[in-house]
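Z., the sequence and structure:
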Amino acid sequence: MKLVVVNNDTDFLTLMNDVLSERGWETVVCRESGGAHKLVKEQQPDAVILDIRMEHPEAGWNVLELLQLDPETKDIPVLICSAGAVELEAKAEWLSQHGITSLLKPFDLDDLYRCVEKLVKA
């Protein structure tokens, strides 16, 4: 399984690469929202793990919107991993309507693994 992880926190990307690789999953990391859509389009991963709070408050949402609008990426499942509880709650209905799962930071690794496995099997 191939996963693209988009987050501007280098420590988080390192951690995610380590814990996902331990499961035998291939990870491709992206530190900037600007190149995330292009990377996902090129890589065609099984799923994307995306932070919504990046360089600016709307950066992750912009990436998500691009992924949803592009016919080549719209069917790739997205897991939002963010500490932005207020933002996630405010857009909960929209996320649900679009089949997008969210996982609030900090999270338990078992919850992360379950979410990813559920996304890919869906």
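The longest helix spans residues 10-22. The mean pLDDT is 94.

Let me know what you think.
H.
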